[in-house]
């Protein structure tokens, strides 16, 4: 077998979402040839599937700098930096124009799903000469044709959106979950738009305690105001929803703070029923509805609903990477060096420092998880973080070690991490200090050099993460 010189091969980027296209832009600026593989029919296919949802981050944090430099000569006009785009607007006003540029378009293949990645000429067990081997990326197109692509390096920015966590307990599907798939909507249905008829005047169970759940719940509340026959049940595994209610007006992403405030008000007003300590054991699908069996703090759980919204979070598809030597944390399935910074058991507070190629590297050199997939099962990823990840990776692949190691982000601090603020809303006189400190009035630039281990970024939730739930037992 003839081994192809790695340096002569392109860098394969898996996924043409915001981070994948940003990776291509940074590689091009470094003189490195990228090839972007996208399973969907166009750029940002996953984002487009929840196009009705508005982002928390304004445009100033949603556009990558290298991507903007490619777009500007085309006459592209940057959106209002303070406006909050919907998913559809992010695609239409940014990702689609970027994908159509003369730099990106010939290097983008859509309808191309990556099903496996391996070192070319060596399985996972081969060590001798492994560092000389490039990568073999196996793809399947919309016609089922299998094509292997050789790559110098691989940046997997395919995200996690298509891989929801199951509804059942212990990370396992509930009995009958597969059979009940027709009643499960996905994490972000278009309640007030295309999917309205599915929910209006009907009974819906929303499972989950993240921002996806909050968006759907508030849309259902709005729908119920127009059609009072609409009923809403919200099920969470924890003992309290205070982590999602968050820091309210102290959150420097105001849309995120408002989301928690509005949802808290809806619960208190009785516009939806909140069940805590829920475990779903079984689903029994019928002709028009599905029976949900299990337990909750109130006792046995036995519901009949027309739809279940599985806003249960996501997990990475690691099966496609079985032949790659990875160094992943056993808890969150993120790169081992990154995991302590984002583990939701510990870090819904503090900060997520800027991080780059060294943190993201794996035993197989030249392979990287970037974007949402780099966070594994942790839920608190932001686009600006992914843009800095791929900028650093591109620098490392170009041999610019100093550029790769100097990572920086300009982000606002946020009060959403403060459990004190959440408690204050329930307990008059409670302390008002935040473990993250007071929020600055303007974004702060963060620079982490070689060997630096901490820095200011977006805080990620409530103090002590899930461990704080023990107070609600």
Automatic annotation (TrEMBL):
UniProt keyword list: Oxidoreductase
Coiled coil: none
UniProt keyword Lyase, yes or no: no
Pfam families according to UniProt: Pyr_redox_3 (PF13738)
InterPro entries given in the database record: Auxin_biosynth/cation_transpt, FAD/NAD-bd_sf
UniProt signal peptide: none
SUPFAM superfamilies hit by this protein: FAD/NAD(P)-binding domain
Top-level taxon in the UniProt lineage: Bacteria
Full protein name: FAD-dependent oxidoreductase
Organism: Occultella gossypii
